[in-house]
Specification:
Elements lengths: L1 H10 L6 E6 L1 H12 L4 E7 L7 H7 L2 H5 L2 H7 L4 H6 L3 H11 L9 H11 L4 H10 L1 H15 L6 E6 L5 H11 L3 E6 L6 H4 L1 H14 L5
Parallel strand pairs: 1-2, 2-3, 3-4
Length: 218
């Protein structure tokens, strides 16, 4: 998927280094892109996911902590299409449970928003494609560890954003220092997992601040 981003940049004829922002599984793709194509990234924003191959990922993916807050890692990553068999046909209540449970403000994502997401996720093969990202975690772990050994830590400025009501924030400092030389972590107050939806103005303010503060660093 990191290659898809590069192909999109080529299609759009964008040749200058970019500011890349990733949330949740998109954060993992963004991190992968930055490790593979570091000269294409001027700065990187990472939000709300543990990076496979880091100590933080191991601490949440292999302990009782993951059985409560991150239980879905195991369900979605199960072989033999178990997740598809259990969830297809029940996408709306299943997905909405995440938008409500992981939010500090359950009204931030409206029912109309959820219905829009469900319309996309009920397209043929859509849920399966999403679950395959979880099934790739083991490969991602190996790829990320190898990249860290061979290429070292990321050198561009990295900003980690985490909601104060989310599991991610306590992990962010240690995790990002493991993979990046120049990382800053900032909390988003009164916010859970869905930063852009729950606190859009604060999110944009922090993003603009990061761009301004790191201008010319890369």
């Amino acid at each position: 998927m990191a290659t898809d981003i590069r192909e999109l940049l080529a299609f759009l004829r964008i040749t200058s280094p970019i500011t890349l922002v990733g949330h949740d599984l998109g954060m993992l793709v963004g991190y992968s892109f930055a490790t593979l194509y570091p000269t294409d990234v001027e700065r990187l924003v990472l939000m709300e996911a543990p990076i496979p191959g880091t100590k933080a990922f191991q601490s949440v993916a292999t302990t009782r902590f993951s059985e409560s807050r991150l239980w879905h890692f195991h369900l979605h990553g199960a072989a033999d299409s178990i997740a598809e068999m259990l969830i297809v046909g029940r996408e709306l209540p299943y997905l909405r449970s995440f938008y409500v449970r992981l939010s500090s403000n359950p009204d931030a994502i409206s029912l109309a928003d959820v219905q829009r997401y469900v319309a996309d996720y009920t397209a043929p093969g859509a849920m399966r494609a999403g679950f395959e990202l979880y099934r790739a975690f083991e490969k991602d772990e190996g790829d990320n560890r190898r990249a860290l050994v061979e290429k070292g830590k990321l050198q561009m400025p990295v900003l980690g954003l985490g909601g104060t009501a989310s599991f991610f924030l306590p992990l962010a400092d240690e995790m990002l220092s493991e993979v990046a030389e120049n990382a800053t972590v900032r909390p988003i107050e009164d916010c859970g997992h869905w930063i852009a939806e729950e606190q859009p103005e604060i999110f944009l303010r922090e993003l603009r601040r990061f761009v301004r503060d790191t201008a010319g660093e890369s």
